[in-house]
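Priority: medium. Attachment 1 of 2:
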Protein backbone atom coordinates (compact mmCIF):
# COMPACT_ATOMS: atom_id res chain seq x y z
CA UNK A 1 0.00 0.00 0.00
CA UNK A 2 1.44 3.34 -1.13
CA UNK A 3 -0.04 6.50 0.39
CA UNK A 4 0.21 10.07 -0.90
CA UNK A 5 3.11 12.10 0.48
CA UNK A 6 1.36 15.39 1.22
CA UNK A 7 4.32 16.60 3.29
CA UNK A 8 6.64 17.31 0.36
CA UNK A 9 6.26 14.68 -2.35
CA UNK A 10 2.87 14.84 -4.08
CA UNK A 11 1.19 16.67 -6.94
CA UNK A 12 -0.28 18.99 -4.29
CA UNK A 13 3.23 20.02 -3.23
CA UNK A 14 4.14 20.50 -6.89
CA UNK A 15 1.29 23.02 -7.14
CA UNK A 16 2.59 24.77 -4.02
CA UNK A 17 6.00 25.15 -5.66
CA UNK A 18 4.46 26.67 -8.77
CA UNK A 19 2.31 28.99 -6.70
CA UNK A 20 5.29 30.17 -4.62
CA UNK A 21 7.28 30.75 -7.81
CA UNK A 22 4.44 32.97 -9.01
CA UNK A 23 4.53 35.01 -5.81
CA UNK A 24 1.62 33.59 -3.84
CA UNK A 25 1.25 31.97 -0.41
CA UNK A 26 0.38 28.29 -0.05
CA UNK A 27 -1.20 25.96 2.48
CA UNK A 28 0.97 22.95 1.63
CA UNK A 29 4.76 22.81 1.63
CA UNK A 30 6.58 22.99 -1.73
CA UNK A 31 7.79 19.89 -3.54
CA UNK A 32 11.12 18.61 -2.28
CA UNK A 33 13.84 18.80 -4.92
CA UNK A 34 12.18 21.27 -7.27
CA UNK A 35 14.23 24.46 -7.63
CA UNK A 36 11.76 27.27 -6.92
CA UNK A 37 14.33 30.01 -7.50
CA UNK A 38 14.97 28.70 -11.00
CA UNK A 39 11.22 28.44 -11.56
CA UNK A 40 10.81 32.08 -10.51
CA UNK A 41 13.23 33.18 -13.23
CA UNK A 42 11.28 31.42 -16.00
CA UNK A 43 9.30 33.65 -18.34
CA UNK A 44 6.84 30.84 -19.07
CA UNK A 45 5.74 27.91 -16.94
CA UNK A 46 3.85 25.08 -18.59
CA UNK A 47 2.30 22.41 -16.40
CA UNK A 48 1.52 19.53 -18.75
CA UNK A 49 -0.66 16.91 -17.08
CA UNK A 50 -0.81 13.66 -19.04
CA UNK A 51 -3.81 11.69 -17.81
CA UNK A 52 -2.82 8.14 -16.87
CA UNK A 53 0.93 8.46 -17.53
CA UNK A 54 2.04 6.61 -14.41
CA UNK A 55 5.69 6.44 -13.42
CA UNK A 56 5.77 2.65 -13.80
CA UNK A 57 4.25 2.82 -17.29
CA UNK A 58 6.78 5.42 -18.41
CA UNK A 59 9.84 3.69 -16.99
CA UNK A 60 8.88 0.32 -18.46
CA UNK A 61 8.87 1.64 -22.03
CA UNK A 62 11.82 2.57 -24.23
CA UNK A 63 11.12 6.19 -25.10
CA UNK A 64 13.22 9.35 -25.01
CA UNK A 65 10.97 11.05 -22.47
CA UNK A 66 12.45 8.80 -19.77
CA UNK A 67 15.75 10.66 -19.86
CA UNK A 68 14.04 13.82 -18.59
CA UNK A 69 12.49 12.18 -15.51
CA UNK A 70 13.88 13.87 -12.39
CA UNK A 71 11.83 12.07 -9.76
CA UNK A 72 8.67 10.17 -9.00
CA UNK A 73 5.99 11.78 -6.87
CA UNK A 74 2.62 10.65 -5.60
CA UNK A 75 -0.87 11.38 -6.72
CA UNK A 76 -3.60 12.07 -4.16
CA UNK A 77 -6.12 9.74 -2.54
CA UNK A 78 -8.00 8.41 -4.28
CA UNK A 79 -5.64 8.23 -7.25
CA UNK A 80 -8.29 9.15 -9.79
CA UNK A 81 -8.84 11.93 -12.29
CA UNK A 82 -11.63 13.82 -10.53
CA UNK A 83 -9.64 14.06 -7.28
CA UNK A 84 -6.31 14.87 -8.94
CA UNK A 85 -7.79 17.26 -11.52
CA UNK A 86 -9.25 19.35 -8.72
CA UNK A 87 -5.91 19.32 -6.92
CA UNK A 88 -4.18 20.67 -10.02
CA UNK A 89 -6.71 23.48 -10.40
CA UNK A 90 -6.88 24.45 -6.72
CA UNK A 91 -3.41 23.56 -5.48
CA UNK A 92 -5.07 21.70 -2.60
CA UNK A 93 -5.69 18.11 -1.56
CA UNK A 94 -9.08 16.32 -1.59
CA UNK A 95 -9.31 17.12 2.13
CA UNK A 96 -9.91 20.73 1.04
CA UNK A 97 -11.62 20.53 -2.37
CA UNK A 98 -13.77 17.49 -1.41
CA UNK A 99 -14.08 15.88 -4.85
CA UNK A 100 -13.39 12.26 -4.10
CA UNK A 101 -14.06 10.04 -7.11
CA UNK A 102 -15.67 9.57 -10.49
CA UNK A 103 -19.06 9.18 -8.80
CA UNK A 104 -19.61 11.82 -6.10
CA UNK A 105 -22.66 11.95 -3.87
CA UNK A 106 -23.71 15.59 -3.55
CA UNK A 107 -25.86 16.17 -0.51
CA UNK A 108 -26.60 19.66 -1.82
CA UNK A 109 -28.73 18.23 -4.64
CA UNK A 110 -29.54 14.83 -3.15
CA UNK A 111 -28.01 12.64 -5.85
CA UNK A 112 -24.86 10.89 -7.03
CA UNK A 113 -23.14 12.56 -9.95
CA UNK A 114 -20.45 11.97 -12.54
CA UNK A 115 -18.84 15.18 -11.42
CA UNK A 116 -16.37 15.83 -14.26
CA UNK A 117 -19.13 15.26 -16.80
CA UNK A 118 -21.48 17.35 -14.62
CA UNK A 119 -24.26 14.80 -15.02
CA UNK A 120 -26.24 12.46 -12.81
CA UNK A 121 -25.00 8.93 -12.36
CA UNK A 122 -28.41 7.39 -13.04
CA UNK A 123 -29.67 8.30 -16.49
CA UNK A 124 -26.68 10.55 -17.27
CA UNK A 125 -28.87 13.66 -17.07
CA UNK A 126 -26.88 16.81 -17.79
CA UNK A 127 -26.83 19.33 -14.94
CA UNK A 128 -25.62 22.29 -17.01
CA UNK A 129 -28.12 25.13 -16.70
CA UNK A 130 -29.96 23.40 -13.85
CA UNK A 131 -27.42 23.36 -11.01
CA UNK A 132 -25.01 26.18 -10.19
CA UNK A 133 -21.53 24.63 -9.79
CA UNK A 134 -20.56 27.42 -7.39
CA UNK A 135 -22.90 25.88 -4.83
CA UNK A 136 -20.93 22.63 -4.98
CA UNK A 137 -17.45 24.06 -5.28
CA UNK A 138 -16.34 26.50 -2.61
CA UNK A 139 -12.64 26.74 -3.51
CA UNK A 140 -10.95 29.64 -5.25
CA UNK A 141 -9.46 28.41 -8.56
CA UNK A 142 -5.66 28.36 -8.80
CA UNK A 143 -5.79 30.72 -11.78
CA UNK A 144 -7.65 33.36 -9.79
CA UNK A 145 -4.78 33.54 -7.28
CA UNK A 146 -2.06 34.50 -9.74
CA UNK A 147 -1.68 37.87 -11.44
CA UNK A 148 -0.09 37.00 -14.78
CA UNK A 149 -1.34 35.81 -18.15
CA UNK A 150 -3.02 32.41 -17.72
CA UNK A 151 -3.97 29.81 -20.29
CA UNK A 152 -5.56 26.37 -20.31
CA UNK A 153 -5.21 23.80 -23.09
CA UNK A 154 -7.96 21.17 -22.81
CA UNK A 155 -10.02 18.91 -25.11
CA UNK A 156 -12.72 20.71 -27.05
CA UNK A 157 -15.47 18.53 -25.55
CA UNK A 158 -14.62 19.78 -22.04
CA UNK A 159 -15.08 23.50 -22.63
CA UNK A 160 -18.89 23.45 -22.68
CA UNK A 161 -19.26 21.91 -19.22
CA UNK A 162 -20.33 24.44 -16.59
CA UNK A 163 -18.43 22.61 -13.87
CA UNK A 164 -15.15 22.77 -15.81
CA UNK A 165 -15.53 26.47 -16.58
CA UNK A 166 -16.33 27.24 -12.94
CA UNK A 167 -13.42 25.30 -11.50
CA UNK A 168 -10.88 26.65 -13.98
CA UNK A 169 -11.75 30.24 -13.16
CA UNK A 170 -10.08 33.18 -14.91
CA UNK A 171 -8.05 31.68 -17.73
CA UNK A 172 -8.04 31.86 -21.51
CA UNK A 173 -8.96 28.45 -22.89
CA UNK A 174 -7.33 26.94 -25.97
CA UNK A 175 -9.28 23.84 -27.07
CA UNK A 176 -7.89 21.03 -29.21
CA UNK A 177 -9.09 17.97 -31.11
CA UNK A 178 -5.86 16.01 -31.68
CA UNK A 179 -2.35 15.47 -30.36
CA UNK A 180 -0.98 17.73 -33.08
CA UNK A 181 -3.38 20.51 -32.09
CA UNK A 182 -2.51 19.97 -28.43
CA UNK A 183 1.15 20.77 -29.02
CA UNK A 184 0.36 23.45 -31.61
CA UNK A 185 -1.77 25.35 -29.06
CA UNK A 186 0.99 25.18 -26.46
CA UNK A 187 3.51 26.44 -29.02
CA UNK A 188 1.20 29.26 -30.07
CA UNK A 189 0.81 30.46 -26.48
CA UNK A 190 4.55 30.53 -25.79
CA UNK A 191 5.56 32.18 -29.05
CA UNK A 192 2.87 34.88 -28.85
CA UNK A 193 3.80 36.04 -25.35
CA UNK A 194 6.79 38.02 -24.16
CA UNK A 195 5.34 38.53 -20.68
CA UNK A 196 5.29 36.00 -17.85
CA UNK A 197 2.71 33.27 -18.44
CA UNK A 198 1.37 30.15 -16.78
CA UNK A 199 -0.12 27.38 -18.93
CA UNK A 200 -2.08 24.37 -17.70
CA UNK A 201 -2.20 21.71 -20.43
CA UNK A 202 -4.14 18.50 -20.14
CA UNK A 203 -3.79 15.47 -22.44
CA UNK A 204 -6.32 12.64 -21.95
CA UNK A 205 -5.70 9.72 -24.30
CA UNK A 206 -3.29 7.58 -22.27
CA UNK A 207 -6.01 7.08 -19.68
CA UNK A 208 -8.59 6.19 -22.33
CA UNK A 209 -6.35 3.71 -24.13
CA UNK A 210 -5.28 1.94 -20.94
CA UNK A 211 -8.87 1.62 -19.73
CA UNK A 212 -9.96 0.13 -23.04
CA UNK A 213 -6.91 -1.86 -24.12
CA UNK A 214 -4.82 -2.49 -21.01
CA UNK A 215 -1.63 -0.95 -19.63
CA UNK A 216 0.76 -3.01 -21.77
CA UNK A 217 -1.31 -3.00 -24.95
CA UNK A 218 0.03 -2.24 -28.41
CA UNK A 219 -2.25 0.81 -28.57
CA UNK A 220 -0.68 2.32 -25.45
CA UNK A 221 2.87 1.61 -26.63
CA UNK A 222 2.16 3.15 -30.03
CA UNK A 223 0.69 6.24 -28.41
CA UNK A 224 3.69 6.57 -26.11
CA UNK A 225 5.96 6.66 -29.17
CA UNK A 226 3.72 9.18 -30.95
CA UNK A 227 3.58 11.42 -27.88
CA UNK A 228 7.34 11.12 -27.44
CA UNK A 229 7.97 12.14 -31.05
CA UNK A 230 5.68 15.18 -30.94
CA UNK A 231 7.01 16.23 -27.55
CA UNK A 232 10.55 16.20 -28.93
CA UNK A 233 9.47 18.52 -31.76
CA UNK A 234 7.63 20.76 -29.31
CA UNK A 235 10.69 21.14 -27.09
CA UNK A 236 12.74 22.18 -30.13
CA UNK A 237 10.07 24.69 -31.15
CA UNK A 238 10.24 26.55 -27.82
CA UNK A 239 14.02 26.64 -27.44
CA UNK A 240 15.42 29.95 -26.12
CA UNK A 241 12.04 31.12 -24.80
CA UNK A 242 13.00 30.79 -21.11
CA UNK A 243 10.25 28.23 -20.57
CA UNK A 244 10.09 25.65 -17.81
CA UNK A 245 8.04 22.68 -18.96
CA UNK A 246 6.83 20.47 -16.11
CA UNK A 247 5.27 17.16 -17.13
CA UNK A 248 3.45 14.92 -14.69
CA UNK A 249 0.24 12.90 -14.43
CA UNK A 250 -2.86 12.64 -12.31
CA UNK A 251 -2.40 8.90 -11.67
CA UNK A 252 -1.29 5.66 -13.26
CA UNK A 253 -3.37 2.56 -13.99
CA UNK A 254 -3.25 -1.12 -13.07
CA UNK A 255 -4.53 -4.03 -15.15
CA UNK A 256 -7.68 -5.73 -13.83
CA UNK A 257 -8.97 -9.05 -15.20
CA UNK A 258 -12.66 -9.10 -16.09
CA UNK A 259 -13.18 -12.03 -13.72
CA UNK A 260 -11.81 -9.91 -10.86
CA UNK A 261 -14.37 -7.12 -11.33
CA UNK A 262 -16.96 -7.94 -8.68
CA UNK A 263 -20.55 -6.82 -9.24
CA UNK A 264 -21.81 -6.26 -5.70
CA UNK A 265 -25.39 -5.55 -6.76
CA UNK A 266 -25.61 -8.87 -8.61
CA UNK A 267 -23.25 -11.26 -6.80
CA UNK A 268 -23.78 -9.97 -3.27
CA UNK A 269 -27.42 -8.83 -3.09
CA UNK A 270 -27.62 -9.33 0.68
CA UNK A 271 -24.77 -6.91 1.17
CA UNK A 272 -26.16 -4.52 -1.40
CA UNK A 273 -29.50 -4.41 0.41
CA UNK A 274 -27.72 -3.10 3.49
CA UNK A 275 -26.87 0.12 1.62
CA UNK A 276 -29.01 3.23 1.90
CA UNK A 277 -27.97 4.33 -1.60
CA UNK A 278 -25.83 3.10 -4.51
CA UNK A 279 -22.05 2.98 -4.38
CA UNK A 280 -19.99 6.07 -5.14
CA UNK A 281 -16.32 6.80 -5.66
CA UNK A 282 -14.50 4.49 -8.08
CA UNK A 283 -14.18 0.77 -8.61
CA UNK A 284 -10.95 0.54 -6.58
CA UNK A 285 -11.89 2.99 -3.82
CA UNK A 286 -15.58 2.63 -3.13
CA UNK A 287 -17.71 4.63 -0.69
CA UNK A 288 -20.59 2.86 1.02
CA UNK A 289 -23.57 4.55 2.67
CA UNK A 290 -25.01 1.95 5.02
CA UNK A 291 -28.38 1.75 6.79
CA UNK A 292 -27.88 2.45 10.50
CA UNK A 293 -29.37 -0.86 11.64
CA UNK A 294 -27.14 -2.79 9.19
CA UNK A 295 -23.72 -1.33 9.99
CA UNK A 296 -22.51 -4.23 12.14
CA UNK A 297 -23.80 -6.77 9.63
CA UNK A 298 -22.19 -4.85 6.78
CA UNK A 299 -18.75 -4.86 8.39
CA UNK A 300 -19.02 -8.56 9.25
CA UNK A 301 -20.08 -9.45 5.71
CA UNK A 302 -17.21 -7.52 4.11
CA UNK A 303 -14.61 -8.99 6.48
CA UNK A 304 -15.76 -12.53 5.76
CA UNK A 305 -17.18 -12.78 2.24
CA UNK A 306 -15.25 -9.94 0.57
CA UNK A 307 -11.93 -10.30 2.36
CA UNK A 308 -10.30 -11.67 -0.78
CA UNK A 309 -11.18 -8.54 -2.72
CA UNK A 310 -10.85 -5.53 -0.43
CA UNK A 311 -10.08 -3.96 2.93
CA UNK A 312 -12.78 -2.06 4.82
CA UNK A 313 -12.25 1.20 6.70
CA UNK A 314 -14.49 3.64 8.49
CA UNK A 315 -14.37 6.62 6.18
CA UNK A 316 -13.83 9.02 9.07
CA UNK A 317 -10.73 7.02 10.05
CA UNK A 318 -9.20 7.64 6.62
CA UNK A 319 -9.58 11.37 7.24
CA UNK A 320 -7.87 11.03 10.63
CA UNK A 321 -5.03 9.03 9.06
CA UNK A 322 -4.39 11.72 6.45
CA UNK A 323 -5.40 9.75 3.35
CA UNK A 324 -7.24 12.72 1.86
CA UNK A 325 -4.76 15.39 2.89
CA UNK A 326 -3.53 17.54 5.76
CA UNK A 327 -4.86 20.56 7.65
CA UNK A 328 -8.41 21.89 7.76
CA UNK A 329 -11.19 19.62 6.51
CA UNK A 330 -13.82 20.84 4.07
CA UNK A 331 -17.16 19.95 5.76
CA UNK A 332 -18.44 18.73 2.38
CA UNK A 333 -15.86 15.93 2.42
CA UNK A 334 -17.62 14.04 5.20
CA UNK A 335 -20.87 13.93 3.22
CA UNK A 336 -19.11 12.63 0.11
CA UNK A 337 -17.23 9.56 1.41
CA UNK A 338 -20.00 7.54 3.04
CA UNK A 339 -19.84 5.53 6.25
CA UNK A 340 -17.29 3.00 5.04
CA UNK A 341 -14.65 2.90 2.32
CA UNK A 342 -13.71 -0.31 0.54
CA UNK A 343 -10.16 -0.21 -0.85
CA UNK A 344 -9.74 -2.95 -3.42
CA UNK A 345 -6.75 -5.26 -3.19
CA UNK A 346 -4.26 -5.52 -6.02
CA UNK A 347 -5.95 -6.89 -9.13
CA UNK A 348 -9.57 -6.42 -8.04
CA UNK A 349 -12.37 -3.91 -8.59
CA UNK A 350 -15.85 -3.51 -7.08
CA UNK A 351 -18.90 -2.01 -8.76
CA UNK A 352 -22.68 -1.94 -8.97
CA UNK A 353 -25.11 -1.39 -11.83
CA UNK A 354 -28.16 0.89 -11.85
CA UNK A 355 -31.30 0.60 -13.95
CA UNK A 356 -29.76 -1.55 -16.63
CA UNK A 357 -26.59 0.52 -16.91
CA UNK A 358 -23.66 -1.78 -17.64
CA UNK A 359 -20.27 -1.48 -16.02
CA UNK A 360 -17.70 -0.71 -18.74
CA UNK A 361 -15.44 -3.62 -19.56
CA UNK A 362 -12.25 -1.79 -18.56
CA UNK A 363 -9.02 -3.75 -18.81
CA UNK A 364 -7.21 -1.37 -16.47
CA UNK A 365 -8.35 0.96 -13.74
CA UNK A 366 -7.14 3.35 -11.04
CA UNK A 367 -7.91 5.11 -7.74
CA UNK A 368 -6.19 2.50 -5.58
CA UNK A 369 -2.96 2.40 -3.63
CA UNK A 370 -0.64 0.25 -5.75
CA UNK A 371 2.61 1.73 -7.00
CA UNK A 372 1.25 1.56 -10.56
CA UNK A 373 -1.67 3.83 -9.65
CA UNK A 374 -0.11 6.11 -7.04
CA UNK A 375 3.29 7.10 -8.50
CA UNK A 376 3.55 9.62 -11.31
CA UNK A 377 6.66 11.05 -13.00
CA UNK A 378 8.11 14.48 -12.39
CA UNK A 379 9.74 15.77 -15.56
CA UNK A 380 11.31 19.23 -15.68
CA UNK A 381 12.67 20.61 -18.95
CA UNK A 382 14.14 24.11 -19.28
CA UNK A 383 14.36 25.72 -22.72
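Attachment 2 of 2:
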Amino acid sequence: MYLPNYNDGSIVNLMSSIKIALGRKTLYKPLKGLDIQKLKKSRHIILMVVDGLGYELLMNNDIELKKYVTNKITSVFPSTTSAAFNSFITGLAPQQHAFTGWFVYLKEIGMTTQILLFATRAGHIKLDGQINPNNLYNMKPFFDNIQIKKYTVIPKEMITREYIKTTLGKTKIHPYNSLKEFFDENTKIIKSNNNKTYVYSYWTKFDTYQHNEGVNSRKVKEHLKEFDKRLKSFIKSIQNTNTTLIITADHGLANIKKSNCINLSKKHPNLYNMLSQPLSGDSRVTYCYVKNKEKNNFVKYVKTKLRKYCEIYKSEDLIKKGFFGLYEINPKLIDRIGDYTLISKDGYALFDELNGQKYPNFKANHSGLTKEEMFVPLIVINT
